[in-house]
Amino acid sequence: MFSFFSKIKNITTIELATKLADNIVLLDVRTPFEYRQGHIAKAKNVPLNKIAAYKEKTDQRIYVICQSGMRSKQAAKQLKQKGYDVINVKGGMNQWSGKVRGGK
């Protein structure tokens, strides 16, 4: 049962790094400009202002990242309301020390 007040799970960027070897769904909710500046290779860009329209069929957990963790938390709440199993990456790209890829 969904509760509007249910907590969004969080993981650190270090924990995220250990999961990237698996086939995970990682959404980067920053703007396309920010995304092109540098993103995690597996991340798919779905800006926060478009997250409400996200309709991918997935039984997988979705990891959400942004620059600092604020927008990803908002996105995670919206996705959770739609029934997705979501985890927010705290600290976002500000805390990410792994490789990044530029461009699309």
UniProtKB/TrEMBL annotation:
Residues 20-101 form the Rhodanese domain. InterPro entries: GlpE_sulfurtransferase, Rhodanese-like_dom, Rhodanese-like_dom_sf. It comes from the Bacteria. This is Rhodanese-like domain-containing protein.
